[in-house]
Amino acid sequence: MSLTSEDEITVRTCIPLFASGANTRGTSSLPLIPSSSLSITSTSAPLSSLHSITINGARITATHTVIHLPTNHLNPPYQSKHPNLTTHHSPPHPHNNNHKMDQIHTRALEALQPFIHLATSNSATSPRFITNLITNATSNPHTYVFAELLTTPAIQSLRDPNTPAEYASYLTLLEIFAWGTWQDYQSTPNLPPLNDAQTLKLRLLSLLSLSTTTNPLTYNTLMTALSITQPSELESLVIKAIYASLITARLSPASNPPTVNVTSVAPLRDVKPESLGKMIDILTAWETRCGDVIGDIEAEIIRIKTESARRRAEEREKEVLFEKALAGWGAKMDEKKVGGG
């Protein structure tokens, strides 16, 4: 790894790494390794917590916050020349992550309310109106849950056998957005085409589902499941999910194989009605296992207490015997002293 004077990094209040055409403000400039041969470790914490970074003797220190931007300037095939370095991307404030996960679910429900209101209004009488409503709801950048909209009578009216096929397919589309995946959409015939916003939304939702069901989550797995051809495009999608607080994750493009390490997922997928029975069975089995574990723990506690009481009794018995022996020895010594005198 060598430093060159061809590029500069500017340490400032917000440092966009590899940001093309980004504004540079501040007073501290240092040489930067060319982006085509660098994999950077970044963090959501202030750089002051890192104290400094040393590269070939050049020390970089700062007290400002880094903005994480995708490393999609690296041309495919995506292979790091420095396998010991890892690129990390995480939310700006990971210590507030659980609170953010709850907030994103609340915001998603709130974003859906206007569409529910329209679906329950007197205007929702024609299939065309309802299908336009579904398109708008699934295109909205803030809607991620759709079960409440699905249950409205207007949406369910699309199940009527007399509904034209071109409109009836929108109900299936909404169900896929609620609990399906990109692959479900691809494998289901005669569905309406997706606009750009819907394509992004369904891929993000599919990423949530994959994050909870697939381990390890490799680049190849995600790219296949989401019909993405370039690693940089996948990274961009993952980073959008991170900054929307949909997931907490770390990108590791230099690992073998490259992976996305997800540590938490926002509760934004609806439950398919047919899966409730299976979920109940799983929870019942889990409850039984928990009961068995608790029973084993309680039995172990009783055993430990019993063993402890037995040991205390043995120790007390030994102390009594020792005291008696000591008293007898002392009495004999006294007798010898008296006899000797």
UniProtKB/TrEMBL annotation:
Top-rank taxon, per record: Eukaryota
Span list, region Disordered: 76-100
Recorded GO CC terms: COP9 signalosome
Entry keywords, A to Z: Signalosome
Cited InterPro entries: COPS7/eIF3m, PCI_dom
Family per record: Belongs to the CSN7/EIF3M family. CSN7 subfamily.
UniProt name for this protein: PCI domain-containing protein
Species whose genome carries this gene: Aspergillus welwitschiae
